[in-house]
Amino acid sequence: MKKLIVFKGGEGSGRYPAGSGEAENTTGAKYTRASVGSLKSASWTRKQIDTSKGDAKVKSELRDLKIKATGQVFEKVTDGGDSREATPTDVVNTIQSVLGMHPADYREAMLDKVTGVGEDAKLIFDVLEDKEYGKTTVTATLQQLGKQFVLTRSFEVTTKGVKDQNGKIGDGKITITNDLFLLSKRDQDKGFGKQITQNLVALADHIGASKIEMEANVDVGGYAWAKYGFAPAPSMFKVLAYNIRKDNREKIASLTPSQKEELDEVLDNLEPDAIQELAALDFNDPKAKEPFGKEVLMKSSWLGSIDLSNKKSYTTIRAYCAKRK
Q: Vertex 201, ends 1 and 224: CA angle to 5°?
């Protein structure tokens, strides 16, 4: 079984090997492949569950590991649908195929180097196989309600050559979705988010995922995800730019002509890195509590993604995760 690629500070150890053309990100740091490591947890050496022993044995092993795993198979979605409950063997086979690891190792993969939260989190898997449209989705949740910790990620694989309900032909690639990350106020600003995102990128490398999708919320996500390198689609950025202008009229009116021009250049830019330029926008206003870009994005909500096959995007998220402040 392949080992997870993990990060060592700002060093590179990812999907772009040395000699492939070094990328330079917004911090100026250069990344090349330095080394490949594995998770330090002893449980990472755990062999995958042997599903040939049958459903009863698989259920027993999951129960002993305190893992809940269920699934649904849709032979047909249209015309009333035709579905059945997936067997424990089918569910575990799908989890191990998509994630490339023993189900219990997902906890170690996501919480590597994370201390203080998640240690006793329940691990819940839900598998959905859509045979008609060629999609398989594994949703993994780590849940520790006593500490207000919930982490849900979905891993969707399309079947190559099969059209979905929108007519898009599957490419066989894996897309990860950040569904939910709930963290109590007392545990925020301790670096958990960066470490968990860093672990997620390592897991993406391990399984060959091409994209991570997310929804930025109206708390800090609109700004934070932009700093990670996530970006909305051009149509979504147009909506975001319109809302920023509408919701910040007084603030924008107080800018100098040159500052307004600079802001317009950013908001009218439909390139993928426009939102990073907006996040970095600072007019050095001594009366402002936060830089202009941070303040307007903190109040924003948008859907976005990061393309891990794009070297600039990949190195941006790697660099930001490595920063501890």
A: 165
Contact 5, 100 (CB under 8 A): no
| Cα(126)–Cα(292) distance, integer angstroms | 41
Structural domain boundaries of the chain?
53-188, 214-307
pLDDT digits (tens, 9 = 90+) for 188-247: 777 788 889 999 999 998 888 989 999 987 567 789 899 999 999 999 999 999 999 999
DSSP 169: B
Write out pLDDT tens, residues 10-22. Answer: 333 344 433 333 3
Which amino acid belongs to residue 17?
Answer: P
Contact 215, 226 (CB under 8 A): no
State the DSSP string of 108-151. HHHHTT--SSSTT-EEEEEEEEETTTTEEEEEEEEEEGGGTEEE
Distance from C-alpha of 321 to C-alpha of 93, rounded to nearest angstrom: 32
- Kindly report the pTM of this predicted structure: 0.82
Residues β-bridged to residue 152:
141, 180
Helix axes 55-64, 88-99, angle to 10 degrees: 60
